[in-house]
Amino acid sequence: MDMKIMRFIKLLILAGSLMFCSIGGALAEAYSSGHQPLEIWDGPAMETAPLWLQYWLYFMTAVLAAGLLFVWRHALARWIVGGTILMIFLVGFVAPWFGIPVLAGLASLAHVICWSPGVYLALKQRPFFSGFSPFAIWSGLVTLVILISFIFDIPDSLIYLDHVSGLGVFGA
After folding, report:
1. What 3 state SS string does the chain have?
2. By Cβ atoms counted within 10 A, which residue in 14, 45, 100, 109 is the most buried?
3. What is the spatial distance between Cα 24 and Cα 165, in angstroms, rounded to a whole number?
4. What span, in angstroms and rounded, lies between the C-alpha atoms of 46 and 161?
5. Taking Cα atoms as reference points, which of 52, 72, 67 lies closest to residue 138?
6. pLDDT at 128 over 90
7. Which of 54, 53, 65 has the alpha carbon at shortest distance from 142?
8. What is the pLDDT of residues 68-120, one digit of tens each?
9. Angle 122-1-78 (CA atoms, 0-180°, nearest 5)?
10. What is the rounded distance in angstroms from the CA atom of residue 39 to the CA atom of residue 107?
11. How far apart are CA 91 and CA 101, in angstroms?
């Protein structure tokens, strides 16, 4: 495997570890349910989210799940599906186990950390330019979906990190 990719993965693992270790008592306040970065991202939040966001989440889930069709033959699909499973594990099980409230900003941060290796590979290898196969179409679609998601996830992640670090850079 490319040494740059390995260094990038190690950096992401370090960032994820720091994310969970640094939060501790910084999240001892009450939060309301919602889809904003500093609100609890739970079932009621998803149900009351704007309709466009609900449709986006269904579409994104379908595109990511379609990657299961390609995991046996394509490393890129393994990275993206694996990153998705890791994100679900971290946000759905690890954070609650440590008593960390699952704020929408935490979910966004998990997206950025867990999907970055896959989207990096997609942009480096560009299999979506290699013809008109089902994998080429999926790789282009999933890359676009993740990049669009990052438009929202990166700012939400920064707001969340600002909040848990107590820096107050964004005034949240």
Report:
1. CCHHHHHHHHHHHHHHHHHHHHHHHHHCCCCCECCCCCCECCHHHHHHCCHHHHHHHHHHHHHHHHHHHCCCCCHHHHHHHHHHHHHHHHHHHHHHHCCCCCEHHHHHHHHHHHHHHHHHHHHHHCHHHCCCCHHHHHHHHHHHHHHHHHHHHHHHHHHHHHHHHCCCCCCC
2. 109
3. 10
4. 22
5. 67
6. no
7. 65
8. 999 999 999 999 999 999 999 999 999 899 888 999 999 999 999 999 999 99
9. 45
10. 11
11. 9
44, amino acid identity? P
Write out the two tokens for 89.
């594990």
Residue 30 binned pLDDT confidence (cut-offs 50, 70, 90): confident
Q: Measured between alpha carbons, how far is 64 from 81 in angstroms, rounded to an integer?
A: 7
- Residue whose pair of structure tokens reads 């989440």 in the numeric block: 57
Q: Are 145 and 115 in contact (CB under 8 A)?
A: no
